[in-house]
Design a protein that fits this description.
Elements (H helix, E strand, L loop, with lengths): L9 H28 L4 H16 L1 H8 L2 E3 L6 H14 L5 E5 L6 E5 L5 E6 H6 L2 H17 L1 H25 L8 H45 L2 H15 L4 H7 L16 H4 L7 H17 L1
Parallel strand pairs: 2-4
Antiparallel strand pairs: 1-2, 3-4
Helix pairs in contact: 1-7, 1-8, 2-7, 4-6, 6-8, 6-9, 7-8, 8-9, 8-12, 9-12
Amino acid sequence: MARTRFAPDRGLTARMLVTMGLLAVLYVVLVGAISLLSGAWLLGVIIGLAVLWGQWYFSDKLALSAMGAREVSPAEDPQLHAIIDRLCAMADMPKPKVAVAHTDLPNAFAAGRSPDRAVVCVTDGLRRRVDERELEAVVSHELSHVAHRDVLVMTIASVVGVLAGFMTRAVLWSGMMGGRNNNNNAAIVALGVMLVAAVVYFVSFLLTRLLSRYRELAADRGGAILTGQPSALASALTKISGDMAKIPNKDLRAAEPYNAFFFYPAMTGKLDIASLFASHPPLEKRLAQLDKISVELGRE
């Protein structure tokens, strides 16, 4: 992680390394399968690497664009800048760019390829629902993501499934349309590539969900310890979870693809099966951890 005063989390570091290693293996398997089955792998690799580089380099801009957010200057939003200035001084870390999303969805997120190229964004909906102490707790949670560098890992990890789709389309377009196979062989190759891509997508999806749930707990811990106010973070979580149900379903559905990066997931319903693949741990688990931290801080 970056050298800051945020408490290090070896469990998170180990999970990020394992996740990135397994995703690299999946990518190699996908490329190998495409090469063996069709021979049309080069175009897929080029497209895949281009997508990966684009996601890495432009991750902050892509995230802001997806949420309709924009950067704000200290003159435009002195309160939010003051909170982030204070927390960055406490954490001894570079100040990220500051952005605001004009939506009623109560949320926040961090994006960027490094602590020096990060952005922290909060929504109008969040600021309307929490007080300054709670807002500081939420922002501290997001800064913990930046300090631990899990924002970058999640950005790269989430694109592997996208790469599987891009590379499959490239192969089906170039390899099977090139005429080197007869119709029967082309159909077999197409089916083989699609099966491998489907497996890669599912496994990468599962790995990112497992990492996402743990990194949220790690950010809760880091943010609560830095501010020394776990109760403020618990209060913000409780308010947001209660008000999320008041957001129109169409707005929640539009935001759901970005749940892995949000402070609190935008959910249109509570399905038991869907909870197995949730991007965040249950609210009860997050609150229980914050209660435990509050007790530990009280003892100290």
